[in-house]
Amino acid sequence: MARKRTSTFEDLVTLLSRLPWWASLLIGVISWLILRPVATSPMATPAGATLDDLSGIMLSQAWRVFAMFGQYLILNRP
User: Fold this and answer.
1) Residue pLDDT, tens place only, 13-68
2) Among 5, 21, 29, 41, which lies 20 to 30 A Cα-Cα from 72?
3) For this UniProt entry, which segments traverse the membrane (predicted)?
């Protein structure tokens, strides 16, 4: 029977689920320490911004949203 092809993300989740509990805890704490300052950073203000500036502001806001959710989701062990 052929093996089902998995994505890189599924392989990563499988690998992380096989780690001992203390390694998962360490990864969670480190990710929280990295993502927390990004998630709580002040939002850039678009006053007098050009179109190029707005794309940078939107990109930084998207990163902040990812960090906001990621700091809690990475802590949960699958």
Assistant:
1) 888 889 898 888 888 888 888 888 887 877 766 666 666 677 777 888 888 888 88
2) 5
3) 12-34, 54-75
Report CA-CA distances (Å) from 36 to 33, 40, 61, 63, 72.
6, 6, 14, 12, 9
The closest of 27, 30, 57 to 42, measured between CA atoms, is: 57
Q: Is residue 51 exposed (0-12), middle (13-18) or buried (19+ Cβ within 10 Å)?
A: exposed
The pair of structure tokens assigned to 33 is: 């320490």
The pair of structure tokens assigned to 22 is 């203390």
CA atoms within 13 A on the CB side of 44: 16
| Long-range contacts (CB closer than 8 Å, 24 or more residues apart) made by 4-13 | 13/78
Residue 71 three-state SS: helix
